[in-house]
Amino acid sequence: QVQLVESGGGLVKPGGSLRLSCAASGFTFSDYYMSWIRQTPGKGLEWISYISGSGTTIYYADSVKGRFTISRDNAKNSLYLQMNRLRADDTAVYYCAKVGATGDFDYWGQGTLVTVSS
Amino acid sequence: DIQMTQSPSSLSASVGDRVTITCRASQTINTYLNWYQQKSGKAPKLLIYAASTLHSGVPSRFSGSGSGTDFTLTISSLQSEDFATYYCQQTYSPPKTFGQGTKLQI
To answer: How far is residue A81's CA from residue A48's CA, in Å, rounded to a whole number?
Structure first.
């Protein structure tokens, strides 16, 4: 069965960096777009980025463009999110998700909490 | 950006009730509309994609309809495990925006 496991979250100071990872199993990873979504109590669910199976097509939400970088390693069945210049409003639970045929997020990881605070 | 507006924001119901949640897009999205269920402390789960197609393993008491800008999620007979928060999401164009959620409670 499809399994997605995020890691790398934690406490970081404003202006700092963090790298999230998502280990995928149960499907042919390189065949699918993957995405990162975050959730805060105040702003709800926010899609932040996705990447094509080959890694050649990438989109970012305006809120993270220029600060976050999505990438993948198909040999390792892994998805990454490099987060730089972190701000307090980046504090959220970050989920990775597999993208389905119509762009839906058909499977999600359990999430990893990122807290940006001094 | 396409704005997604759900109503109501919260809803009280009882086991066995028929419940409908609506979602409106700020511009047409054809049928690029998905519904998710999220229980407290857990990740969202896909219920319905492409407005009306049930995701694998989702009970048939869930159904979705609509196209263009107006969509509905219906639960035909509420079960105790259905009390959760429901989100709609458009995947017509990036950013793939979500609605603010509808909390379904007893």
So the answer is: 10
Measured between alpha carbons, how far is A17 from A89 in angstroms, rounded to an integer?
14
What is the SS3 assignment for B80?
Answer: helix
What pLDDT does residue A43 have? 76
Q: Which of B69, B64, B71 is nearest to B49 (CA)?
A: B64
Q: In the predicted model, what is the mean pLDDT of chain A?
A: 96
Distance of alpha carbon B95 from alpha carbon B49, whole angstroms: 17
Residue B44: list chain A partners with CB under 8 A.
45, 95, 105, 108
Tens of pLDDT, residue by residue over B2-36, are 999 999 999 999 999 999 999 999 999 999 999 99
Q: Exposure pattern of B24-36 as b/e (b: 16+ CB <10 Å)?
A: bbeeebebbbbbb
Q: Are the C-beta atoms of B87 and A97 separated by less than 8 Å?
A: no
Q: Which of A22-31, A39-48, A91-100 has the lowest mean pLDDT?
A: A39-48
Give Cβ neighbours of residue A75 (< 8 Å, ≥ 6 apart).
Answer: none
How distant, in Å, are the alpha carbons of A63, B21, B103, B106 from that of B9? 25, 9, 6, 14
Residue A114 token pair: 């990122």
Gap from B63 CA to chain A (nearest CA, Å): 16
Residues 66-105 of B with CB under 8 A from A: 87, 89, 91, 94-98, 100-101
